[in-house]
Amino acid sequence: MGLKRNVSLSTALGYKGQGPYLTYILHRIGGSALFIFFTIYILSLVGVHAANRILANWVFQIIFLPFMLFHAINGLRITFLDLSPKLIEHFRTAINIEWVAYILVVLFALFVILRNVFGG
Amino acid sequence: MAARTLSLNKRGFNFETFMWAFTRFTVIAMYGLIIAGILGALIISAQSGANFGNILYWAFFPNVAENPLGQVWMTILAKLMVIAFVLSACGHGVHGVLEILDDYFTSEGARRWSRNFIITYAIVASLIAMFVIWTK
């Protein structure tokens, strides 16, 4: 079985899956970011100094942290709805609540990183 | 949208169901460990005067940070919690990464190789993490 997708990248990006699709894609990107983070973390434990420097780099933190936090918060919603199937019909409300929580958490996280960078 | 009401008996407990449950339970374990870790570090920080951030930093990077905890039982408990977290994350991640790779590798051979590679990677990474966290 070969992989045949007759969908161009521009069409894929224009797919109107709305909120649920956006969370699905961001969850995957966040999971991939966590996989990369975990690999660097293991290298750091082994004693690779470059890995320590990458983890301490604020640009790395600013890029990776929002995706990783999204994965954690979106995962909480998925788990919650999976374990409470009767709430599935309210999934759009759950996504809206998730976005509010995510924005608050990620803004705080970015504020802490930037405050450390600029010596506040 | 109707709620799913299919019981586990009717759905059948196959490999996919097991891995679905495994992924959910490992993530619940991680949330539990995160909450317990933050609360524990806050309590220890308040009692011993050690910096909250330093406790968490040492817990995850014992090879580069000083141990801020005075008592042996605290050190052992913290190490066990971090090891449990790393193992849960690894177990959770293996299934997640495989699910993504399965969407892109559709041939039988590529799927088998990616599966073998990721599972081997997870086992090796877990063993290294456990060794360093426990011995440093």
Q: Helix and strand string of chain B, N-terminal first?
A: HHHHH
Mean pLDDT, all residues of chain A:
87
* CATH fold descriptor of chain A: 3 helical TM bundles of succinate and fumarate reductases
By secondary-structure content and strand pairing, the structural class of chain A works out as mainly alpha
Order of helices and strands of chain A: HHHHH
Q: What oligomeric state do these chains adopt?
A: heterodimer
Rg over CA atoms of chain B: 19 Å
- So how many helices of chain B? 5
The helix content of chain B is over 70%
| Biggest interchain interface, per-side counts | A-B, 28 and 29 residues
Instruction: Please tally the helical runs of chain A, counting DSSP H or I stretches of 4 or more residues.
Output: 5
Largest sheet of chain B, in brief, is: none
Q: What is the overall silhouette of chain B?
A: elongated
Strand content of chain B: under 5%
Question: Would you write up a description of this structure?
Answer:
The complex is a heterodimer of chains A (about 120) and B (about 140). Chain A is an all-alpha fold and about 120 residues long. Chain A has helices at about 10-15, 20-45, 50-55, 60-85, 90-115. Chain A has a single domain (about 20-115), classed as 3 helical TM bundles of succinate and fumarate reductases. Chain A has 5 helices and no strands. In chain B, helix 2 crosses helix 3, helix 2 (about 15-50) packs antiparallel against helix 4 and helix 4 (about 70-105) runs antiparallel to helix 5 (about 110-135). The mean pLDDT of chain B is about 85. Chain B has 5 helices and no strands. Chain B is mainly alpha-helical. The chains are: A mainly alpha (about 120), B mainly alpha (about 140). At the A-B interface, helix 2 and helix 4 of A face helix 2, helix 4 and helix 5 of B.
